[in-house]
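Design request, tokens follow.
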């Protein structure tokens, strides 16, 4: 059984709903979740908020957070995951924001830096992914890190 199928089984068994808030993963997490037949029973929707404007208007990320910490930060993904749960009325959510590459990195936030947040009811777990595997590799790694984190929370 694939990871996204295992997550679907857990969500269904617990009668929970899921939403996503994605930046650097561009909706790929939502696409994997919805590739499972019957996912409409537990998946409410996803928001791809690539720009700061979209993060603010669709996910209620504050301008102050973006100004002080940047889009690629613990603080931003925490606000993104809360915004997804609120906007899409779900029990759980996953959020990603990072620098997939090949450009855009800085010494403080090198290419491959991705922040991932998973919310389950009132608990939020956050992780920082590091290491440049190339754009595709960075995105794939973020997708699976997010899904593994979600699975761990649901168990």
């Amino acid at each position: 059984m694939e990871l996204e199928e295992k997550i679907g089984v857990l969500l269904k068994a617990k009668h929970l709903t899921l939403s996503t808030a994605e930046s650097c993963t561009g909706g790929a997490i939502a696409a994997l979740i919805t590739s499972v037949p019957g996912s409409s029973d537990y998946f409410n929707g996803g928001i791809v908020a690539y720009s700061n404007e979209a993060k603010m208007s669709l996910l209620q990320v504050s301008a102050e957070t973006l100004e002080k910490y940047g889009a690629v930060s613990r603080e931003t993904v925490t606000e993104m995951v809360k915004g997804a749960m609120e906007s899409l009325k779900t029990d759980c959510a996953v959020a990603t924001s990072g620098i997939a590459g090949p450009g855009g990195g800085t010494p403080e936030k090198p290419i491959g830096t991705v922040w991932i947040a998973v919310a389950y009811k009132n608990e939020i777990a956050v992780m920082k992914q590091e290491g440049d595997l190339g754009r595709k590799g960075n995105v794939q790694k973020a997708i699976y890190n997010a899904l593994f984190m979600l699975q761990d929370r649901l168990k």
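Comment from the thread starter after seeing the answer: thanks! The first strand starts at residue 18 and ends at 22.
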